[in-house]
Each structure stands twice: as structure tokens, then as C-alpha cells.
């Protein structure tokens, strides 16, 4: 049996810049569906994110920051506005 190569990232929409409406952190994001989002953070975006700073508190990166609700809302808005393509199922 031949395994089909996964080319979803090649065939689908690429990463697009999205800026958080709350803190201005700029990330690269893509939507594979309305339920799935990929985000690439830069060091500058991670440092700018107000929710990340609040979650990490004393500055020690414990690895427990699971995501930014403000950025999630900004990405959803970008998808609804058409700035991020959401492929048909």
C-alpha cells in the first residue's frame, strides 16, 4: 500500500500576517478549517503579547501559555473579513 504524501500545506492557503487588535503583536497565521488554526510566533510577537506576559507573570517561561484570546479573536476577524482564507470542507 502506498502512503499518499500530505500536501495540505503546499496546496492550501499559506501563512498570512495577522496583527493582534489588543497589543499589536504580529504573527503569521493560516486556517485549514474554521476549527483549525496554525500560528507562528516571532520573538517580538511573544514579547509584545499582553496575555502572554500576564500568564507568565514573573518572566520565567514555564511553557504553560496555551494561547492568547485577543489574538484568537483577531484571527477570527481576519478570516471573516477575508484576509485569511478558510478552505471549503
Proportion of strand residues = 15-25%
Query: How many beta-strand segments?
Result: 3
N→C terminal distance: 26 Å
Uncertain runs with pLDDT below 50, 5 residues or more? none
Rg from Cα: 15 Å
The overall pLDDT average reads: 87
Description:
There is one protein chain. The chain has one domain (17-57, 66-89). The radius of gyration is 15 Å and the shape is globular. It has a three-stranded antiparallel sheet with strand order 1-2-3, with helices on one face. It contains four helices and three strands. The model has no long low-confidence stretch (mean pLDDT 87). The protein is α+β, with helices and mostly antiparallel strands.
Task: Produce the secondary structure layout.
Layout (H helix, E strand, L loop, with lengths): L7 H4 L4 E4 L6 E6 L5 E4 L2 H6 L1 H7 L12 H13 L8
Antiparallel strand pairs: 1-2, 2-3
Short structural summary:
The protein is α+β, with helices and mostly antiparallel strands and 89 residues long. The protein has helices at 8-11, 43-48, 50-56, 69-81; strands at 16-19, 26-31, 37-40.
Feature tags:
89 residues; alpha+beta; 3 strands; 16% strand
